[in-house]
Write a structure and sequence with these properties.
The chain has 2 helices and 12 strands. By secondary structure, the protein is mainly beta. The strands form 3 sheets. A 5-stranded mixed β-sheet has the order 4-6-11-8-9, with no helix packed on it. Strands 5-12-7-10 form a 4-stranded antiparallel β-sheet, with no helix packed on it. The longest helix is centred in the last third of the chain and has 4 residues. It is globular, with a radius of gyration of 22 Å.
């Protein structure tokens, strides 16, 4: 009845990236080129509150993002120690062998500061973001700008991700960091096997029964709490009310 369509290009002949309605907002959408078409359609009946979209234009290029697999290395913003370019969207990822830690030491750090952010905001102009794992998936370590260096950062998942985002205005010298991959130290009396996670977790394997899974509410009988299992084949659990108090146990 009412929907939003997103196309990966400048016309409706471009590949469609998705068609959306209801109350669940789509995940962030990234175009493969310099154009993105958003089409909104509504019928003559029931009205909704509509939608609001925030978009960002990023400069991309092979010289920006990079993967690191060596046991040690140096990570720098493009051009360091000269000022970094505007409109960057870079991702640096360090991959370590299983049962290893990644230790990152920042030698120098200077990005555009955000001295007067509103409540709930942090580093709105240029920033470095770090995750212990894949970007926006693994545990979030922090978001940094100004001269507040991350200092020493340790990843325990075997993957450490850094994303650099800059706007089209003020630029600083950026940062330089050294990383080292080291074997994880185990508590006395333990071996690697004690910490290996090779078997499916209970929420995926079925060892946790459906009767043991409860939820705050469900959209209808088809959206039972057991749909929150990892890698569930159909739509995941959906609550009846879109509030901050939704939960699965």
């Amino acid at each position: 009845y009412d929907y939003v369509e997103v196309y990966n290009g400048g016309s409706e002949q471009s590949p469609m990236l998705g068609k959306f309605c209801g109350k669940i907002a789509p995940s962030p959408i990234i175009s493969s080129g310099s154009q993105l078409l958003i089409k909104f359609v509504s019928d003559y009946e029931t009205h909704g509150a509509g939608f609001s979209v925030r978009y960002e234009v990023f400069k991309t290029g092979p010289e920006c993002s990079r993967n690191f697999t060596a046991p040690r290395g140096v990570i720098k913003t493009p051009g360091f120690p000269e000022k970094y370019p505007n409109n960057l969207d870079c991702t640096f990822m360090i991959f370590a062998p299983k049962m290893s830690e990644i230790v990152v030491e920042f030698d120098s750090f200077d990005m555009e500061p955000d001295t007067t952010p509103p409540p709930g905001a942090l580093c709105r102009y240029d920033w470095l973001e770090i995750w212990d794992g894949f970007p926006a998936v693994g545990p979030h370590i922090g978001r940094y700008c100004g001269q507040t260096s991350p200092g020493r950062v340790i990843s325990y998942t075997g993957i450490l991700s850094m994303t650099i985002t800059t706007d089209n205005a003020i630029a600083k010298e950026g940062f330089s960091a050294n990383y080292t991959v080291r074997e994880r130290s185990l508590p006395p009396g333990h071996t690697d096997e004690d910490f290996a996670c090779m078997e499916p977790l209970g929420m995926e394997s079925g060892e946790i029964s459906s009767e043991q899974i409860s939820a705050s509410s469900q959209y209808n009988s088809n959206w039972s709490p057991e749909r929150s299992r990892l890698n569930y084949q159909e739509n995941g659990w959906t609550p009846s009310d879109d509030t901050v108090r939704e939960w699965v146990q």
